[in-house]
């Protein structure tokens, strides 16, 4: 993890804070944090990657879609299902516009949306059951 943060520092010193390499470094740190189950931190890093991508390319770019998708995954793990659905929908909208229906990236968004909806239903059902038993 330390080497990723050192890489980020070097890239920021070389290129400034708004550069494609800095966005990629933020994304990589976010992925590592996600794998470590540090979802708050992962969300922070993916949001930074998104902010840089939007500043560089605008919202309708593959890098922005990837960041929205990664943010949705973090939000889902944090049980913030409404935000996760919103972020995943943004990723889907971008990917549909850029790649159409028949791309793996678009398919991944549909799968993630369905997964988040399922988790939300399970959580809501569990809450209803708990309130009935109280």
TrEMBL record:
Cited Pfam families: TPR_12
Alphabetic keyword roster: Repeat, TPR repeat
SMART domains linked to this entry: TPR
UniProt superkingdom: Eukaryota
Keyword Repeat: yes
Listed Gene3D superfamilies: Tetratricopeptide repeat domain
Classification via InterPro entries: TPR-like_helical_dom_sf (IPR011990), TPR_rpt (IPR019734)
Keyword Repeat: yes
PANTHER family reported in the protein's UniProt record: NEPHROCYSTIN-3, TETRATRICOPEPTIDE REPEAT PROTEIN (AFU_ORTHOLOGUE AFUA_6G03870)
Name of this chain's protein: Nephrocystin-3-like
Organism: Paramuricea clavata
